[in-house]
């Protein structure tokens, strides 16, 4: 596994600690050269990292958004360290929660078809949503249901979520 170009010195780009390490780690986990920047197709993906981010740049952008970035230089008479803070996980968790909840409610209300893509949008790799998830609302659209949500490995529901069907007031 080869390395990249020189960085951090005079006339060189800075070492971007978070993004550089994330790109290299993404590539190593996927059995690629550390400087590879190409996306990994879903048919070639063999790890959770490429199921989550299609390319090392996508993974690095996510890491920088969450963790921030620290640029390091070793040159004389230059700014040695520059830091940009990240937003943390809370905003990303909320964004993902809102998107998954909306996708799941759309499936349960029947406003979108139960296609593979829509089921994937409502679920995740560790918590898939199946066609059977939308049957209660199809048989009784005026009722409200509590949906137990738990990952495959857990025995007890991690949380309960109230979902309203087509004409049920929430």
Largest beta sheet: strand ordering: 1-2-3
Total strands: 5
Order of helices and strands: EHHHEEHHHEE
* Unreliably modeled segments: 148-160, 166-170
Alpha carbon gyration radius: 22 Å
Shape field:
elongated
Fraction in beta strands: 5-15%
Largest sheet: 3 strands, antiparallel
Quaternary structure state of the chains depicted: single chain
- Measure the end-to-end span: 55 Å
Mean pLDDT equals 79
Q: What class would the helix/strand composition place it in? A: alpha+beta
Instruction: State the helicity in percent bands.
Output: 25-40%
* Tally of helical runs: 6
What does the model show?
By secondary structure, the chain is α+β, with helices and mostly antiparallel strands. It contains 6 helices and 5 strands, in the order βαααββαααββ. The chain has a 3-stranded antiparallel sheet. Strands 4-5 form a two-stranded antiparallel ribbon. A hairpin with an 8-residue loop joins strand 2 (68-72) and strand 3. The longest helix is centred in the middle third of the chain and has 20 residues, at 90-109. It is elongated and about 65 Å long. The model is unreliable at 148-160 and 166-170 (pLDDT under 50).
Quick recap of the structure?
By secondary structure, this protein is of the alpha+beta class. It contains 6 helices and 5 strands. It has helices at 17-29, 48-52, 56-67, 90-109, 116-122, 135-139; strands at residues 15-16, 68-72, 81-85, 144-149, 159-164.
Strand-helix topology:
Blueprint: E1 15-16, H1 17-29, H2 48-52, H3 56-67, E2 68-72, E3 81-85, H4 90-109, H5 116-122, H6 135-139, E4 144-149, E5 159-164
Antiparallel strand pairs: 1-2, 2-3, 4-5
């Amino acid at each position: 596994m080869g390395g990249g170009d020189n960085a951090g010195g005079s006339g060189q780009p800075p070492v971007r600690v978070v993004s550089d390490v994330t790109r290299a780690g993404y590539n190593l986990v996927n059995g690629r050269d550390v400087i590879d920047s190409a996306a990994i197709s879903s048919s070639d993906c063999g790890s959770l990292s490429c199921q989550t981010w299609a390319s090392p740049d996508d993974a690095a952008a996510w890491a920088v958004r969450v963790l921030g970035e620290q640029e390091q230089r070793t040159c004389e008479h230059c700014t040695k360290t520059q830091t940009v803070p990240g937003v943390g996980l809370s905003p990303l968790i909320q964004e993902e929660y809102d998107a998954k909840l909306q996708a799941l409610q759309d499936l349960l209300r029947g406003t979108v078809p139960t296609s593979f893509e829509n089921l994937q949008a409502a679920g995740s790799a560790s918590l898939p949503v199946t066609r059977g998830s939308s049957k209660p609302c199809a048989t009784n659209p005026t009722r409200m249901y509590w949906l137990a949500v738990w990952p495959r490995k857990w025995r007890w529901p991690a949380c309960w979520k109230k979902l309203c069907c087509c004409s049920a007031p929430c």
